[in-house]
Amino acid sequence: MNSYLEEELSRRCKLFRLWEPPTPESRRDFLRDNAGSIRALVGNTTVGADAETIDLLPGLEIVASFSVGLDKVDLAKCREKGIRVANTPDVLTEDVADLAIGLAVSTMRRICESDRYVRAGKWKSHGDYKLTTKKRDLQCRYPSVSDIGRYRIRTRQTLSGYRPILQIMFSGRAVGILGLGRIGSAIAKRAEAFGCPISYHSRSQKPDTGYKYYSNAVDLAANCQVLVVACPLTEATRRIISREVIDALGPKGVLINIGRGPHVDEPELAKALVEGRLGGAGLDVFEHEPRVPEGLCALENVVLLPHVGSGTWETEKAMADLVLGNLEAHVLNKPLLTPVV
Ligand code: DGY
């Protein structure tokens, strides 16, 4: 939750309590003790309104989430109990799409790794990175994706033993998008500007996009080099990035996840990256945030971000205003600005 929203909520609401980082137990106790007076809950990407929370609050009327994703809200239960639900769509689309492209470029051009190289004082002369390649590879300044399999993906390196490897070009690579909704479409538009052919898998085929449609994630992964997860988390998309999908993407492929952690089988992903069965990964989301699977932190061929898809000041302010607007509309008995239920 951002400080602007926090300030406005404490100024405008009678009872306001922020329960992150307090433990789930203290949150439960607080909810139980104040159950009679709680009419509204403001959730985010880590804390929402699950069945247990809803059952604790007989007076709950609205859940206004500071997120577009609603996987932390039990929508069926809200419907059943007549609780209104609102989220923050549209205002974060551009931010999240920008970050997806940024992650793809950072991962393939090894920007974060190169930054660590400079900071660690390892940069001694221009083109140091060439030291890691065999002589014959030096002729290939920009290896094509088909060359990448020849370079051993370097893993488990400590910073002291580190030398960056050759980068992979993002422009022109085949981009596959999982979920062609608002955010997926905005990512596709950006990738097109990089000259990338676009394909996608979505709940349904979208007419008139000009993008190639695949009816499942495995076929999509087998036919692209950069696979971007941009779909909502539902029971149908949980673990959609399975071992089969990872292997279809292969050692020349890169996975980008700006959706949700549980979209990915994380242990399988870490294994594939360590074994060189997958080229790299750029991840903004994880299954048990803020915990990141230990295996991933030891790898250089991944870029790890702390769920900052919508993290610009402008977008966070717009999201906060939507949350406040929805709460206000509810209190005034007006239609919600961005209703979900
Ligand atoms: C959301 O709001 O659901 C996104 O995860 C923001 O990054």
Superfamily (CATH H level) name of the largest domain: NAD(P)-binding Rossmann-like Domain
CATH fold-level assignment of the largest domain = Rossmann fold
How many domains comprise the coordinates?
Answer: 2
Structural class: alpha/beta
Structure ligands: (2R)-2,3-dihydroxypropanoic acid
Strand content: 5-15%
Distance between the termini: 22 Å
GO molecular function: glyoxylate reductase (NADPH) activity; hydroxypyruvate reductase [NAD(P)H] activity; NAD binding
Pfam families: 2-Hacid_dh, 2-Hacid_dh_C
Domain D-isomer specific 2-hydroxyacid dehydrogenase NAD-binding: 163-309
Protein name: Glyoxylate reductase
Description:
This protein is of the alpha/beta class and 341 residues long. The protein has two domains: 3-91 and 312-331, NAD(P)-binding Rossmann-like Domain (Rossmann fold, 3-Layer(aba) Sandwich), CATH 3.40.50.720; 93-304, Rossmann fold. The protein contains 13 helices and ten strands. It has helices at residues 3-12, 24-33, 51-56, 75-81, 93-109, 111-119, 145-148, 182-193, 217-222, 243-249, 266-274, 294-297, 313-331, and strands at 40-43, 62-65, 84-86, 175-178, 198-201, 212-213, 226-229, 254-257, 280-283, 302-304. A seven-stranded parallel β-sheet has the order 6-5-4-7-8-9-10. Helix 4 links the parallel strand 2 (62-65) and strand 3 (84-86). Helix 1 runs parallel beside helix 13 and helix 5 (93-109) packs across helix 8 (182-193). It is globular, with a radius of gyration of 22 Å. The model is unreliable at 130-164 (pLDDT under 50). The structure holds (2R)-2,3-dihydroxypropanoic acid. (2R)-2,3-dihydroxypropanoic acid is lined by residues 45, 67-69, 92, 96, 307, 309-310. This is Glyoxylate reductase.
